[in-house]
Design brief:
By secondary structure, the protein is mostly helical. It has 15 helices and no strands.
Length: 353
């Protein structure tokens, strides 16, 4: 008994080049931003006290330029053609190192860098999963490019959705339902938004900060929207609705607390909007641009039995569980616990440039 192809998407029957190239552009902007931060920063009393010297020494080092070149070359190769698992992994590793160095040099990692990295990780995981399925079914040498990219797309969407579901779950696990009380959001607004801001955004923020009811409604909506991100996996329309809800959440947070998360919003729009339904018509005067949305030949997909799928899924789950258990047992657990610490060790005065 063969297992049906994975999921459904607005991209079914079309090339996914636009998704891959768009993701590469967002990841490249991430890499440039992280590299600029590391190049400009130096270790100090505010840096992570447990960070190794080699990581902290990247601050202002010429090695940052080398890492940037390696990352951009890998990103270019990833964007150039489908199935570039090794190039994507190299780009992800270089970006992760730069983001980690930035976090170690400063008061912890900047979370706005996370969403594109997660999407790239999910894309690569989807590719690896598809290749493992093809190998187990005896079709490893067949041309399965389109079939693999279906899994890559769904892997990226799953990683994005998991990011927000995890955010909602962590609030409930660490604080409980009381997180959605009438004071949580108000305290965030008052600690981030200038009191003297007379703009429309400032007036809106002051209204929410002064209204217990509005603050609580928005806090409850935060949990609902973040937890509802799992709906992105059901189908294209649910992905559009859930993705736009999370996008609106980010826009609201920027208005209230001036926390933008621009890379996350760009990644959500890339994977959740129905680009193939309207962009080809808008770009019809530019054939090269329309080629990103080209109709592809009928997909070649291996006959994967339900037993083979279950075995591969069980293997992947076992690897993930082993990774989580190992990470919790290693000293890295203590290291990451200080990532967002604002103790005196990490908040000393900075020298003026």
């Amino acid at each position: 008994m063969s297992f049906a192809p994975l999921g459904s998407s607005y991209w079914d029957g079309r090339s996914r080049s636009f998704l891959r190239v768009g993701l590469a552009v967002i990841v490249a902007s991430n890499v440039l931003g992280a590299a600029a931060n590391v190049w400009q920063d130096q270790r100090g009393t505010w840096s992570h006290p447990m960070a190794p010297d080699w990581l902290l020494n990247l601050g202002g080092s010429p090695l940052v330029g080398l890492l940037l070149i390696v990352a951009l070359l890998a990103i270019g190769q990833f964007a150039r053609k489908p199935g570039q698992l090794a190039a994507g992994a190299l780009a992800l590793a270089a970006m992760a190192l730069l983001v980690e160095a930035d976090g170690a040099l400063n008061e912890g990692p900047k979370r706005h860098f996370f969403a594109p990295g997660l999407a790239l990780l999910g894309w690569l995981a989807g590719l690896a999963f598809a290749r493992l399925l093809a190998w187990r079914s005896g079709h490893a040498r067949a041309d399965l490019t389109a079939w693999q990219e279906i899994h890559a797309e769904m892997g990226a969407v799953a990683a994005l959705a998991g990011n927000y579901v995890d955010a909602a779950a962590s609030k409930l696990l660490h604080v409980g339902p009381g997180w959605a009380n009438d004071t949580t959001l108000r305290s965030v607004i008052l600690s981030h938004h200038p009191l003297g801001d007379g703009s429309l955004a400032g007036q809106y923020a002051h209204f929410v900060a002064g209204s217990a009811a509005a603050s609580q409604v928005l806090a409850v909506a935060t949990l609902v929207v973040q937890g509802g991100a799992c709906l992105m996996l059901i189908g294209p329309r649910w992905r559009l609705l859930a993705g736009l809800a999370v996008f609106a959440f980010h826009c609201n947070v920027e208005l209230l607390a001036d926390i933008g998360y621009g890379p996350a919003r760009m990644t959500l729009l890339l994977f959740c909007l129905p680009w193939p339904l309207f962009l080809p018509r808008l770009l019809r005067r530019w054939p090269r641009a329309v080629a990103f949305f080209a109709v592809v030949a009928p997909m070649t997909s291996p006959a994967v039995s339900r037993t083979q799928l279950l075995r591969v899924s069980a293997l992947v789950l076992a690897l993930v569980a082993a990774t989580v258990v190992t990470a919790r047992a290693l000293p890295i657990r203590a290291y990451t616990a200080l990532h967002h610490s604002y103790s005196g060790e990490r908040s000393g005065p900075r020298p003026q440039p």
